[in-house]
Design a protein that fits this description.
The protein is an alpha+beta fold. It has one domain. It is about 20% helix and about 35% strand. The radius of gyration is 12 Å and the shape is globular.
């Protein structure tokens, strides 16, 4: 399967003007998962397992957001 067809989703990040550190990204993902009833565990700084699926964690500029930062998880 091509990478462009992999499942991905954005994680709400309130401090869009500040680059998300690893700790802030993991905190936001934890909150997102707990609020939605998902099981999760971190497999390192840039990888998380949510409901038995592995995702890469991207931290950086959000496309089309005029310079705001965001967090995105993309299925491996």
């Amino acid at each position: 399967m091509f990478k462009m067809f992999k499942n991905s989703f954005g994680v709400p990040y309130e401090n869009g003007g500040i680059y998300p550190t690893v700790a802030k990204a993991q905190q936001a993902i934890s909150k997102y998962c707990e609020e939605n009833g998902y099981s999760y565990s971190f497999n390192g700084d840039d990888e998380v397992i949510i409901n038995e699926k592995t995702y890469e964690i991207y931290r950086g500029y959000e496309n089309g957001s005029r310079g705001s930062y965001g967090i995105k998880c993309r299925e491996r």
